[in-house]
Structure formats: structure tokens, C-alpha cells
Design brief:
Length: 784
């Protein structure tokens, strides 16, 4: 029976469910979106005060920078105005608070732009112009030695510095209640140079600003006050000292009210007084053409009485004073040296550079003639004559020759080609083809090579001493090492035949002779070392003796020069007594001659009659005699010490010395120390006095080493001094290159003032408040 598959029973269709969000899911999404929006609004609301504070601070910073820039350009602060859009001259009443003149300040702000909102503003306005920061007034002029002010009417930053100092001074003792003021962090009232306030988002009871900031009185809330429910303004103030330092005055407080810049200009004014005094002295030197050695002493006295104090004050007080005493002294000291390159640097130098970027330039000033009057006694008659000739030459009153100064300064520093030189009479003559003149740079290079060679020679001498003196020493002529003895022993038999046999020294005998030989070597070395030590002591003593001999010569020369100077000065005083002078400069000269003669010839010396410099240099005849006596006593003692030590070194025993000397020093003759009594292989009598005797004895090598050690020290000092002089000269050369007018090297154009008085006026005009020159000054390129 067949079976057939059964078809499956059909199933009923399944129900289809709906797709999408349910009501619950929709509610959740809406809730999340709403929460996010709420949180975002809260975050934005929380950041709003931060942005407001930032905007306030930016406005205060902009206004503060603009006020400083305005003061730098105009030598005063602007006054508060009646409305935020008022012109600069629409000022509120004295000692009132107003609005910041934003439109006027936008033109001077270094970054441009604007504060973005109006600001309240107050400024310290004193009862008189001398302390009113909103008024440009002439409150400072440099003073002379009599504390009399120069008559300079230019108004600039120096005057503003003086006004700030006056305001700080008058508000130190007690707070001025009617002038710009606020409170410090402790709540104490203080006066300020100026104050700024910017409003917060919440208006105050009487206007946009809160508390004192809204009122018209010149007072503001403390910058330290924090925000609260009734206050959201922000305040910034400038105290007197911070404003002064920002403007370049450096200090303006009760302990130092004048400030560094004002003191610098006063020092420059004193330099002008010195220049005038030197001009007067120069005229006197021109009339006194016959003075010689005694005038060097008179000039030195003049320098002490009339110039030294000013020079010291300037050197210690002015931050930069070009053509100062160092450059003048260097120029005068090197002027007499052919080809007299530095002579051109003496007359044209008088210039000054004050702090805060004041650049006056170079000018020919009579101050340089002080070098003519400052000739030291030790320079002698020839130097005095040169000083007199320079005084006769006078000082240039015209604008300085920057190119000529640059050429001379750069040749002095770097070397160069010269086209004129001095003849035997000191007159300059042309050299058409020119000749090379080494500068300080080449001198430094030569000294460096010289020092390298001296160090090498010193080290070679030390190495030779070490080589000769070590144990075993190359100085000793050691006996040869023993060799084992041997001999032949022969025996003859009955037939007459001889049989020989070599016999050797016994070990005991040979070893004993070796021990004896070693002992002999040790004994030789033991004898040599005291000998070498004694030789070194003798050479040390000789070196010291030579030093004392030089000191005696120096002391004797100083004594003789003092005697000569006193004699010349006595003649000058006698002439004054025979023909009493009537002119003021001659009367002064005679008076100073008498004082100098009394001080230099007094016995015992009286320091009250001498200057501090003369006391330090012992410029008195009695002292010079004492110095000579002491030097002679020291020389005699040193000579005796050398004689004793040399005899000890000479007579001490020594071992046989090897032939270690290389040069007899006598052409054609060998050295024979064994047969010549004064000759010793280690130390030779009188060898120091015979420059032709080049034998490198141990004594001479040690003596040479002593000299080389000292030479290295002295040459190192000389090189350091020369290198320092070169660096200064190179800096001067570079400065002149930068200041060369119209040069092809990109030199800057600078204002030139001719004459010491004009330099001072130029410095006063330039001011100390930045690169913007006050409009009331003369043209920068003018020659007053």
C-alpha cells in the first residue's frame, strides 16, 4: 500500500505591532532638552560677571597707558573734563573729579583703540603750579655750584619729574583733603597722582557709578574694595613714586625727592662750571708762556683746589658722562708719543648722556683743557711744555668733527694708515704715501704672543730644574757600576804544559762592592740636595737684592725731583714777592705757589698743608728723604743676606758634577770649571754681572726661572690693562661710527650742540620722558 506526504496545516497570520516613540519616551526627551537649555543659560549667566570684570580691567589698563603716554609727550597730565566726549580743554573745576578725555587720549595711546566705555578721572592739582600735575610749568633748571638755577625756559619731562617730586613732598606730612585721594588697603587716606574708575553693570543710587566714584569731589573708592550688593565699580590709581619711575624719573619720594634724572642734570651743570673754570685757567696758562717745571706743580694744585671735587662728583653721580676723566687722562698720557694720534682727541670732547635715553652727541668742550692743567710732577719739563702748547691751542667752539674723531678713535683702537707724523721738533708733517700705525688691538695681540712665549720659557726653565734636581740626578757624575771581577789561573805540569782556568769573584765580594757603589750614589745624592737648596736660597736673596737696588734708584729719583721742584717753586715765590701781581689769576697762582712750597718743604711734613693726593704720594721733601734712607737700609740688608747665602752655597760640598753645561758663553773657548777657580759647575761667581756668560748653570737656570715667574705676572697685568684700554677705545670707536652724521654706514642723525653751556641746555630740552620731544623745545637739529 502506497503512502503519500501530508501537507502542513496553514497557520493564521500574526498581528503587526506599531513602530515609533511612546508617550513616555517623548516626555523624557523633552525633559532632557529643557534641562540642557536651563543649564546652558545658567552657565552663560555665571560667566557674565567674569566678562564684565575683564572689560572693566581692559578699560582701566587702556586709560592708564594712555595717560602715561600723554604725560610723556606733553610733560603734564590732562585735566578731567565735563563730559566723556568733551575736548581736552573743557576742564572741570580745580580739585574736582570729572571724565577721562577719551578722544584726546585715543591719539596718543600706543596701541590705538578706545576704552569702550566712559571712565571717571581725577588728577592731583596742587595749590600752585609747582605741584599741579595737570599744568605744564617750568619747575626745574640745572644748578651750578652756588645752587643758582640756569635760566632755561624749556618745559619738558624733567619739569614734570620736579612737579611729581613737589606733589609727593607736600603730601607726605599730611594728606591733602581737597586733592586727588583714595584709601589704601588698611583704610588710610592717601593722596595719589591720578585715579580712574569704571562702572559696573549695576547702577548706583545717584548714577552709573557707585559711592564716591559718582561724586564730583576729587576722591575715589579704594582700589582694594571688593564687589558687594551695593558696589561693583573698579578703581585704579597711580601713586607718585610709580608714576615717576614709569616716566623715567626713577624716584620721587620723601627720602629722595629730586630723583636720579634731576640729579644727573645737576651734575652736568656742575660739569659746565668746571668747564668755565678750566677756560679761565687756560687763559692764565696762555699768558704764562715762560713757566716750566714749577708750573706743573701749580697746575696740580689748581687741579686739586678747583677740579678734583667736581670730577669726583661727576664720576660718582652721572650714569654716563662721555669724554670723562679717564678718556682725557688716557689721551694726554699718550699724546706725546709719536705720531701724536691721541692729541686730536683732547680738545674736541665735551658731551653728556643722561639717564632714560638722553643722547646729546659729542661736542668740543673746554672741559677737555683740564688735561692741560693736570700735568703731574713726574712728567718733567717736556710734558709741561706740551701742556702749555695745548693750552695755547685753545678749544674748538664749533660743532665737533665726528668723522675726524671717529678716524682718530678707530685708528687708536684698531690701527690704521696715517698720512702725517711729527718731526723732531714736534711739528706735524705730511706723509703722502702714508704709513701703518698699530692700534691697541695690535698691541694686545703682540702682548698675547709675548705672554705665551714667556709662559713657555718659564715652564721650560722649571722642567730643566726638575730634570736636573730629581733623584737620581742628571747633575751627578756617578761612578760606573761595578762588574764582576774575573782572572785567569794557570797551572804548569812537569812537562812544561800550562793549563789555565778562568776564576770569578765570589758572590759575597761582588755583592759587597755593589752595595758600596749604591751607598756611594746615595751619599752623592744626599750631598747634592743641600747644595741645590742653598743655591736656590742664594738666588732668591740675589733677586730680592736686585729689587731693593731698583727701589733705591726710584727713591733717589723721587728725592731729586722733589728738590728740583722745590727750587723752581721757590724761585716763582721769590718773583711773586719781588713783583706782587695785580691780576686775579696771577694773585691766585702766587698764593697757591706759597701753599705748595710750604707743604712740600716743611720738616717734619705737615699733612694739613698738603692735599689728600699729595699725602698719598708722599709729596714732601722730608718724606722723600725718609723713603730714600729706608730704601738704602733695605738694600744694604738685602746685599748682606745675599753675600752670606752665596758663600754658604759656594762652600757646601758637592759630588762630582757631570758635564751638563751646553754653552761656555765665550766664543771659541770651552768651559773649564775644573781648572778655573771662580767656576763651579752649579754656581759661578759673578755670572749675573757678565751678560755674555750664557752657561746654564743650575744657579742661573733657577735665577732665570724666578725672573720668568715675575715676568708672567707682570705681563698678565699689562695684557689685562691693555685689553681693557682696547675694549674702551673700541667702544668709543663704535659709538662714533654710530653717531657719524651723514655717514655711509647707516649712522644716525643726532642733534649737535656746540659748547658746554649749549650741551647743558640741549640736555635740559631733551628731557627724560621718552622718545617724544616736548613741542616747546627748540628743533632737535638746531645749534643753540
Amino acid at each position: 500500500m502506497e503512502s503519500h506526504p501530508v501537507a502542513p496545516r496553514p497557520q493564521p497570520p500574526r498581528a503587526k505591532y506599531a513602530r515609533g516613540f511612546s508617550l513616555l519616551e517623548t516626555a523624557m526627551v523633552v525633559l532632557l532638552i529643557g534641562g540642557a537649555i536651563a543649564v546652558g543659560m545658567l552657565v552663560l549667566q555665571a560667566r557674565k560677571p567674569v566678562r564684565q570684570v575683564q572689560a572693566q580691567e581692559q578699560a582701566l589698563q587702556w586709560a592708564d597707558q594712555a595717560l602715561v603716554a600723554y604725560a610723556a609727550a606733553n610733560a603734564h597730565l590732562p585735566c578731567p573734563v565735563n563730559t566723556p566726549t568733551s575736548d581736552i580743554d573743557d576742564c572741570v573745576g580745580p580739585n574736582q573729579k570729572g571724565w577721562l578725555p577719551t578722544r584726546a587720549l585715543e591719539a596718543v595711546h600706543p596701541g590705538g583703540g578706545s576704552p569702550g566705555q566712559p571712565l571717571r578721572y581725577m588728577v592731583y592739582r596742587g595749590g600752585a603750579a609747582g605741584s599741579d600735575l595737570a599744568v605744564a610749568s617750568n619747575q626745574f633748571s640745572p644748578h651750578n655750584w652756588k645752587r643758582e638755577a640756569h635760566d632755561f625756559a624749556d618745559i619738558n619731562g624733567l619739569d614734570l619729574c620736579a612737579v611729581i617730586a613737589n606733589a609727593a613732598r607736600e603730601s607726605t606730612s599730611a594728606v591733602k583733603a581737597d586733592r586727588a585721594r583714595t584709601s589704601d588697603i588698611d583704610g588710610n587716606a592717601i593722596n595719589v597722582a591720578y585715579g580712574l574708575s569704571v562702572a559696573g553693570p549695576t547702577p548706583g543710587d545717584s548714577g552709573l557709578f557707585d559711592g564716591l566714584n559718582q561724586q564730583s569731589v576729587a576722591s575715589m573708592e579704594s582700589p582694594a574694595r571688593g564687589a558687594d550688593s551695593g558696589y561693583d565699580d573698579r578703581v585704579r590709581v597711580r601713586e607718585f613714586n610709580t608714576l615717576a619711575q614709569t616716566l623715567g624719573c626713577h624716584y620721587a619720594d620723601a627720602t629722595n625727592p629730586d630723583g636720579v634724572v634731576l640729579a644727573s642734570l645737576d651734575m652736568l651743570a656742575l660739569a659746565v662750571d668746571v668747564s668755565d673754570e678750566v677756560d679761565d685757567q687756560n687763559e692764565a696758562l696762555i699768558r704764562d708762556t715762560q713757566s716750566s717745571y714749577e708750573m706743573a706743580i701749580v697746575s696740580e694744585v689748581f687741579a686739586v683746589l678747583n677740579v678734583a671735587l667736581a670730577a669726583a662728583s661727576i664720576a660718582n653721580s652721572v650714569s654716563t658722562l662721555i669724554a670723562g676723566s679717564t678718556q682725557l687722562a688716557t689721551a694726554v698720557a699718550t699724546c706725546p708719543v709719536p705720531p701724536f694720534v691721541s692729541c686730536g682727541l683732547i680738545a674736541p670732547y665735551t658731551a653728556a648722556v643722561t639717564s632714560a635715553g638722553v643722547a646729546i652727541g659729542f661736542a668740543s668742550g673746554a672741559t677737555a683743557l683740564a688735561a692741560s692743567a693736570l700735568v703731574a710732577i713726574s712728567l718733567g719739563l717736556d710734558k709741561t711744555k706740551q701742556a702749555r702748547d695745548m693750552a695755547k691751542a685753545g678749544s674748538s667752539k664749533g660743532p665737533p668733527d665726528i668723522a675726524g674723531l671717529k678716524q682718530n678713535a678707530c685708528i687708536a683702537a684698531e690701527g690704521g694708515t696715517l698720512y702725517e707724523k711729527a718731526d723732531e721738533n714736534g711739528n706735524m708733517i705730511p706723509v703722502p704715501l702714508g704709513f701703518w700705525k698699530d692700534g691697541l688691538k695690535q698691541e694686545v695681540e703682540k702682548l698675547e704672543q709675548k705672554l705665551i712665549q714667556t709662559i713657555a720659557d718659564r715652564d721650560a726653565a722649571q722642567a730643566r730644574l726638575d730634570w736636573l734636581g730629581r733623584i737620581p740626578s742628571h747633575l751627578i757624575d756617578y761612578p760606573p757600576r761595578p762588574v764582576r771581577r774575573s782572572w785567569q789561573e794557570c797551572v804548569t805540569d812537569g812537562n812544561g804544559n800550562q793549563t789555565c782556568q778562568t776564576k770569578y769573584e765570589s758572590d759575597a765580594s761582588y755583592n759587597q762592592r755593589i752595595d758600596d757603589w749604591l751607598e756611594t750614589k746615595r751619599h752623592m745624592e744626599e750631598v747634592l740636595q743641600p747644595k741645590l737648596a742653598a743655591i736656590r736660597a742664594a738666588e732668591d736673596a740675589y733677586f730680592q737684592w736686585e729689587t731693593t737696588v731698583e727701589l733705591v734708584e726710584q727713591a733717589r729719583t723721587g728725592r731729586d725731583q722733589m728738590n728740583e721742584a722745590i727750587g723752581q717753586l721757590a724761585q716763582q715765590v721769590q718773583q711773586c714777592d719781588l713783583s706782587p701781581p695785580t691780576e686775579l689769576d696771577a694773585i691766585r697762582r702766587c698764593s697757591n705757589n706759597r701753599v705748595a712750597l710750604m707743604g712740600m718743604s716743611a720738616n717734619p711734613c705737615n699733612p694739613d698743608l698738603l692735599t689728600a693726593d699729595q699725602v698719598e704720594k708722599r709729596q714732601c721733601l722730608a718724606w722723600k728723604n725718609e723713603d730714600l734712607q729706608e730704601a738704602e737700609a733695605n738694600e744694604h740688608e738685602a746685599q748682606q743676606a745675599y753675600a752670606s747665602k752665596f758663600w754658604t752655597a759656594w762652600t757646601l760640598p758637592q759630588p762630582p758634577i757631570a758635564a751638563y753645561l751646553d754653552d761656555a758663553g765665550i766664543p771659541g773657548l770651552p768651559w773649564v770649571c775644573s781648572v778655573t777657580w771662580p767656576c763651579n759647575d752649579l754656581i759661578i761667581l759673578g755670572q749675573h754681572d757678565n751678560e755674555n756668560d750664557k752657561r746654564e748653570t743650575y744657579a742661573m737656570t733657577y735665577y732665570k726661572h724666578l725672573g720668568l715667574v715675575v715676568a708672567v705676572v707682570e705681563q698678565t697685568k699689562e695684557l689685562e690693562a691693555k685689553r681693557e684700554a682696547y675694549e674702551e677705545a673700541q667702544a668709543q670707536c663704535d659709538a662714533l661710527r654710530a653717531l657719524e652724521l651723514g655717514g655711509s654706514n647707516g649712522g644716525q642723525t643726532i642733534p649737535v650742540w656746540a659748547g658746554a653751556e649749549a650741551i647743558l641746555q640741549g640736555a635740559n630740552c631733551k628731557g627724560a620722558t621718552g622718545p617724544v620731544q616736548p613741542s616747546l623745545c627748540p628743533s632737535a637739529g638746531a645749534t643753540p
